[in-house]
Amino acid sequence: MSDLANDLLIDLAIDRYDRHLPFFDGTLNLPEYPKIRILQVGQTTTLRDGTDRHERMLQDGAYDAAETSLASYIAAKAQGLPFTAIPVFPRRLFSQGQIFVNADSGIESPRDLEGRKVALQSFQTTLAVLAKGDLATEYGVDLQSISWRVKQPDTVKIAGSSQYDITPLPDDADLTDLLCSGAVDALFYSRTPSPPPARARKIRRLFNDPGQEEAKFVERNGYWPIMHLVALKESSVDKYPELPGTLMKMFNAADALSADFMADPNWSRMPWAKYTIEAEADAFSRNLWTSGLQANRANLERFIGYAADQGFIGTAMDPEDLFHPSVRDS
Question: What is 192-212 written as a DSSP string?
Fold first, then answer.
């Protein structure tokens, strides 16, 4: 083993989800070579080792590997930026439960969003790309009729999306406040808005029963939409060619360890978590938390189509194009 290999240190930046707990509590066996340092880095919140994980990875190459926005990563790959990835997906969300409307807007159905003002964290935020795509594909919404109001610039700058009406919001704009006041009619948000108690009734979800809508989505499509994947710097893989496979094994081992957490009915601070687990087992006949390219092909193909429709990529891409060759057969 060369001196360079002995000195190799890999920084892996991830969020602090329950499925990542084994990375932080010592129960996951990390490889002796290369030495891997686990960093707890948030995106919209500041964690132990910082925030703005997506930008720091895709703009600055701050980490050897990092949990990264699927939409921004696709834009980066389309531009030939020096990144690759493994088919591990640390974050997933349905769009249906993340679409919020002003309670006085008169919006009762997806088509009622047409002609309205809709706020987004950024046009490229993965949840926003998913929600737009789902609304067009599943509910027939004309996305070009909507006036989009964006809080932040895209993580990876693109030249597309010119067919959409996109207006930046002021730097100090508060998305929840804009929705409460009626300055925008709807908000597609990767978190849950937290208005002050006096204004709580000013916001509601678009769907009265988003869980039912999400169950229908799984029945039609067979998957839980991907939000994030794990991106790697190509230069780091050049130094350690087995890194993609090593990291994939680590994430799969952490998933197996964390899968047993809720066998203890009081593992979560939520008193009804055990009932939710039972209800989800009844609602979904398959495991929605899957890694590997083949198990997630339809999921990725559809999202790549959304990215193309919304102007993030100019040429067709296959799911294989996103991942390092050594893990494409997973």
Answer: -----GGGGGGEEESSSSHHH
Give the CB-side neighbour count of residue 221, counting CA atoms within 13 A. Answer: 23
Mean per-residue pLDDT, 74-103: 98
Domain end among 201, 221, 241: 221
Read off the DSSP letter of residue 63.
S
169 and 63 Cβ atoms separated by less than 8 Å: no
Structure-block tokens of residue 255: 């998933």
Alpha carbon 36 to its chain centroid, in Å, reads 24
Which amino acid is it at 165? Answer: D
Give me the numbers of helices (H) and strands (E) for the chain, helices first please: 11, 11
Task: Decide: 36 and 253 in contact? Cβ < 8 Å.
Answer: no
Question: In this structure, are 46 and 33 located in the same domain?
Answer: yes
pLDDT in tens, 204-228: 999 999 999 999 999 999 999 999 9
Mean pLDDT across the stretch 290-295?
97
Whether residue 171 sits in one domain with residue 27? no
Q: How far is the C-alpha of 127 from the C-alpha of 74, rounded, in Å?
A: 14
Q: Give me 292's structure tokens.
A: 């590997």
Same domain as 217, residue 100:
yes
Mean pLDDT taken over the chain: 95
- β-sheet with 203-205: strand ranges across: 165-168, 147-150, 117-120, 186-188, 99-102, 203-205
